[in-house]
Specification:
five-stranded antiparallel β-sheet, four-stranded antiparallel β-sheet, elongated
């Protein structure tokens, strides 16, 4: 991933939103009955880290979705806009493929706006924490950076029962 110069603009992340594409599921009851056994929860935390990995800002959100439906995240700062979509795809035995698509706009004084895209496909298991660095990972303890943490898990019904059962492998 292309690195932007010293990330002075990271300090000014002001706004975080997360939502499912065509936001149709605010709660489990909003999910059509025929899809409730396939419901997934994406827990997303965006945070700004500064010197010595000190957290200076964070925001969290949980969204209900199904396999193949993206959950979008937008981070807006004075000089940066990050738009990321996380799309989980159910695989076999409780595994998930997480597709991450990102678009980043950074306004660098005297250089103008720089634009970058990213696409990553990551196999994950339920409960595994995925760390995404839209502006690149920090190369030293002195650099500021944005980190987005994502956890995909099966939806649990209000009574605490896990609704999503992993797909079974086919037996030969």
């Amino acid at each position: 991933m292309m690195r932007f110069k010293k990330l002075f603009m990271v300090r000014s992340v002001l706004f975080f939103t997360a939502g499912a594409a065509a936001l149709w599921a605010q709660s489990f009851e909003d999910v059509p009955a025929s899809l409730q056994d396939k419901a997934l929860v994406l827990d997303i935390t965006a945070r700004v880290m500064e010197k010595d990995s000190q957290e200076v800002w964070n925001s969290s959100s949980s969204k209900i979705t199904i396999s193949g439906r993206a959950v979008g995240v937008k981070l807006l700062g004075a000089n940066v806009l990050v738009a990321v979509q996380f799309t989980p795809y159910l695989a076999r035995e409780g595994n998930t493929i997480l597709v991450i698509q990102g678009q980043i706009w950074v306004n660098i004084p005297d250089q103008g706006v720089q634009y970058q895209t990213t696409l990553q496909t990551i196999p994950v298991t339920f409960g595994e924490l995925v760390r995404f660095f839209p502006l690149g990972a920090s190369s030293s303890n002195e650099d500021a950076y944005i980190e987005v943490l994502v956890n995909v898990s099966p939806y649990k019904a209000p009574d605490g029962a896990v609704v999503q059962e992993p797909l079974e492998t086919e037996k030969e």
